[in-house]
Amino acid sequence: MTNLAYEETFDCVQCGYCLPVCPTYLTTGKEAQSPRGRIHLVKMAAEGRISYDTMNESMALCLGCRACETACPTNVQYGDIYDSAIRAVHEKTPLLKRLLLKNGLTNKTILTTASYSLQLYQTLKIDKVVRQSGILNALPPAVKELERVTPPVKAKKHSNSLHPSKKPRYKVAFFVGCIMDVMFAQINELSMKLLQLGGCEVVVIKEQTCCGALQHHSGEHETAKQLAKANIEAFEKVECDYIVNSIGGCGAMLVEYDKLFKDETMNDRAKAFTSKCVDISVLLAQLNLPMDYSVNKTVTYQPSCHLRNVQRVEKEPMLLLQQIKGLTYVELAEKDVCCGSAGIYNIEHYDEAMSILDRKMNHAKSIEPDVIVTSNPGCHLQMKLGVKRACMSEQTNVVHLVELVAEACGIGVKEHV
């Protein structure tokens, strides 16, 4: 009848438990911008009562954070419904975006060139000249604002393998990601050092590629499958206990590779792959790291939606924060509500993303934290932008959880970017 996930829509009983956790509903107050509203629109589109274009007006503004799944009492698989809707209209995706997703993020030469270009842009102080010239004013607001919060890009220093001083507790294959390894390579480096410190042997598989998350969430299903197959085949070459990453969004994609190959011969291999995939916080929480250094700061935590809602990792980051000496933790109101980053949502839907972010930062202002902790590169950049918009830059840093744990262990950089 349709390629929409029609049968799945009947699991929704329209109870409204999802409303308080949906960022677009909270900021707009519109039923069409709520999970139950979107599910109803998908059902009507599948039945031919509305057009796909009408359905997409609402679906396009969904962040895909999947907080509604954790709140739902009837276990509605909103992610499957959302993905089917995006796939149904993906032909309308702009050509430039499709080329970027299919060729840009999957090409290591392009990513390496981008990394070196950003390094030169910053090292030669071209960024300051560009900002003073006013050239950025000709760009879309999203690009202009994100350029201003781009972190210092450093050359990659991580090795292809790290060995602990004693017999390894685990052998870990590390997933570096694409954007993460371009803009936040130092976090990957610290991640691997922490795993080594905790007694793990760490290997980096050079054949690995983009996880496919951005492609999948943009309806490029076949491209996502190709990338998943390439990663599965690459990591199958190494016997390991875990496949570890420090990227909430990528990790969520990795643990759902089996869904891409449902009813296909690749499904068993995909399940074997996903069974080994864990966020770094899960493993670090088990390793009894020597956190001997005090971090005397007031800290709040903005979880990655996909880490919490898809990977269902919630307690481990908190356990790590609780182990850090001197740290004062203050919970952020509505911390389980998306920050508005959502892949490239904050570029495509800048105004909506800023409404969500400004609501988030109003909560952060009441805490006046020294540090906002994140667990995903997109969230990291979004919260840095939020700090800037809220005029909190002089007081508040934004760091990845790994950076804070590394500081407590006395390794890596002491000054956060």
Defining key terms:
50% helix, Rossmann fold, single chain, four-stranded parallel β-sheet, 417 residues, 9 strands
Helix content: 40-55%
Query: What is the global morphology?
Result: globular
Low-confidence stretches: 413-417
The main sheet comes to: 5 strands, mixed
- Kindly report the average pLDDT value: 89
Would you mind describing this structure in some detail?
By secondary structure, this protein is of the alpha/beta class. Among the domains are: 87 residues, Orthogonal Bundle (Fumarate Reductase Iron-sulfur Protein, Chain B, domain 2), CATH 1.10.1060.10; 112 residues, Rossmann fold (3-Layer(aba) Sandwich). Helix content is 50%, strand content 8%. The strands form two sheets. Strands 1-3-2-4-5 form a five-stranded mixed β-sheet. α3 packs antiparallel against α4. It is globular.
Can you lay out the helices and strands and say which pair or pack?
Layout lengths: L5 H4 L13 H6 L6 H12 L5 H8 L7 H5 L6 H11 L6 H10 L3 H16 L2 H8 L7 H8 L12 E2 L7 E5 L4 H5 L1 H13 L2 E5 L8 H4 L4 H15 L6 E4 L2 H7 L2 H4 L6 H8 L2 E3 H5 L13 E4 L3 H5 L5 H9 L4 E2 L15 H4 L1 H18 L3 E4 L2 H13 L7 E4 H9 L8
Parallel strand pairs: 2-3, 2-4, 4-5, 6-7, 6-8, 8-9
Antiparallel strand pairs: 1-3
